[in-house]
């Protein structure tokens, strides 16, 4: 863990952020809503299976905004941070797949 990560973790703990105890893991896209209409960027409802060391596997529903040409698909796997103490607290790195 580098100095910036340590500072961010300290800030999360100080502000009682639900992600303060998060550990590195991954999520697998289980289901997604369909894009509606012609708008380039749209909100997508996503159901994810979250997995991380020491954390029971669980399903989490969330929403994110995506361009239609990068809409998530069932089976996609993404790096994520998963909170062991807050069942719905996850932070997905949606950009890692695009790099």
Summarize the structure in words.
The chain has 99 residues and is mainly beta. The chain has one domain (22-98). 12% of the residues lie in helices and 44% in strands. It contains 1 helix and 5 strands. It has one helix spanning 3-14; strands at 23-32, 41-52, 55-67, 77-82, 90-92. A 5-stranded antiparallel β-sheet has the order 3-2-1-4-5, with no helix packed on it. The protein is globular, with a radius of gyration of 15 Å. The mean pLDDT is 87.
- Mean pLDDT, rounded to whole units? 87
Strand order of the largest sheet: 3-2-1-4-5
Rough shape?
A: globular
For the record, the count of structural domains works out to 1
Q: Which radius of gyration do the C-alpha atoms yield?
A: 15 Å
- The run of helices and strands is HEEEEE
Helix content: 10-25%
Write the layout of secondary structure elements.
Blueprint: H1 3-14, E1 23-32, E2 41-52, E3 55-67, E4 77-82, E5 90-92
Antiparallel strand pairs: 1-2, 1-4, 2-3, 4-5
Structure characteristics:
mainly beta; 99 residues; 1 helix; globular; single chain
Compose a concise summary of this entry.
This protein has 99 residues and is mainly beta.
């Amino acid at each position: 863990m580098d100095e910036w990560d340590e500072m961010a973790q300290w800030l999360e703990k100080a502000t009682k952020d639900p992600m303060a105890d998060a550990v590195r893991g991954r999520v697998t896209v289980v289901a997604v809503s369909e894009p509606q209409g012609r708008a380039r960027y749209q909100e997508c409802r996503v159901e994810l299976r979250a997995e991380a060391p020491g954390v029971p596997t669980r399903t989490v529903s969330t929403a994110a905004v995506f361009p239609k040409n990068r809409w998530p698909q069932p089976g996609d796997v993404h790096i994520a941070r998963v909170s062991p103490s807050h069942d719905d607290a996850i932070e997905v790195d949606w950009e890692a797949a695009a790099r």
